[in-house]
Amino acid sequence: MSAQATQQELQTFLLDEKSNMKEIQQTKRKSNTNLEKSEVVHLNGLEYFDPFLERNLEHPTTDCETLTHLLKASLGTGILAMPQAFQCSGLMTGIFATIFVSAVCTFCSYSLVKCAHVLYKRTKVTAMSYADVAEVAFANGPEWAKKFSSLTRQTVLWLLFITYFGTCSVYTVIIATNFRQVYMFHVDTSLNLRCFIGMLLIPLVLLSFVPNLKYLAPVSMVANLLMAAGLGITFYYLLCDVPNINERPLVTQSIDRFPTFFCITVFAMEAIGVVMPLENNMKTPKNFLGFFGVLNTGMGGVTVVYILLGFLGYLKYGEETQSSITLNLPTNEIPAQLAKICIALAVFCTYGLQFFVCLEIAWTKIQESFEKVTNFHNYILRTVMVTFSVLIAIAVPTIGPFIGLIGAFCFSLLGIIAPVVIEFATFSDNVTVWMTVRNVVLIVVGILALVFGTASSITEILVMYAPEVPQIVTAFNGTAAQ
């Protein structure tokens, strides 16, 4: 893949959240102008606006290219935690539960794009971001929704920010943990994981100083190659000396571990943040949907890969499965060391892309609030944000609960609840019984994942890093009972 192609891919993934209702109106006027210049389509004597014919892209992506981008977006570092997810569910339960999570995530993404296609025609615009869809759906929805349109947009934006910012902290932990294992093998000196995380601060700040996506493109290209090499070696180890399937439980032995499975899987599989950017850049947007459309095809392939890695990883290592499967690879073997280093470097390079998403959202807010901001302030913001993400990783240097927390809190809201509510607002004048039942069930699933998943992740963090807290709570409950 050339640097130019990688730059285009990065631009596709970067969320364009600078638009607002004012800009949507400008796009609407521009679309009307384009319509006057082109052949006007009439249906029964009435002017008909086709947003896909009016979409004018300099470098549109084909269906195949969009599918490739979707696979890359979904097959992120979350895949490394899938064996731990299967550890929480059991082998057989993990397979069916992963399919269920995939179906929910895919349907909600499908619903979001379907609403966008309807709103394109209503507002005569040709493309929208996730935040745009949320705002326009409420602004053009029922009376109760109109007053929440601006709030809905801001909520989506900040949830996206928290999601990607939290992911940056998770990446920092993954990088440090893999490097630490290799270091500890070659150097007979014990060094705390937090020290390794702290040492990443300067390199990450320098990476964040890359001015734009053009210069980040070669870095992302290297990340793709490194991740492919690391996962290839990992699969090699998983397929060597595979234990008998009877040695592992097919069903979870403890139901209270299941929320952890759900949160990790949602974090790993959810790609709601890139769905609209991908659709906005397609040459044939209608092909994104459909039974054999780009979305369903891509998520089907992703589901198979996640099931394979989760199943094989837990089958191979059982209860010794760690939060990132690379940590289970034998550190004394050169191929395993190369896998750890490759994946750590790949995650380091990918940090830049995740960080750019957060930076764009935060910097846009600052520009809206302050008139006299310069590039100097932009680089101060970059430094502060990277420092804060590293400090969070130092405070919680455990991958599993952190991934679960992001999956439970952010992706339950962004990936499940928000698209369902947006659909209600978009089709408020044509809500069927089936839509009501289906969406209420999805909202309940999202709320359960939000509440129990968040509580489970926070409890795990407290138990790991504040063991005295449960003792205090138990003592307090005992005193209250007396």
TrEMBL record:
Name of a matching Pfam family: Aa_trans
Keyword Signal: no
Cleaved signal peptide residues: none
Organism name: Sipha flava
TM regions (residue ranges): 91-113, 156-179, 191-210, 215-238, 258-276, 288-314, 334-359, 379-396, 402-427, 439-466
Recorded topology in the membrane: Multi-pass membrane protein
InterPro entries documented for this protein: AA_transpt_TM (IPR013057)
Keywords: Membrane, Transmembrane, Transmembrane helix
GO molecular function: L-amino acid transmembrane transporter activity
Residues covered by the Amino acid transporter transmembrane domain: 64-458
Official protein name in the record: Proton-coupled amino acid transporter-like protein pathetic isoform X1
Subcellular location: Membrane
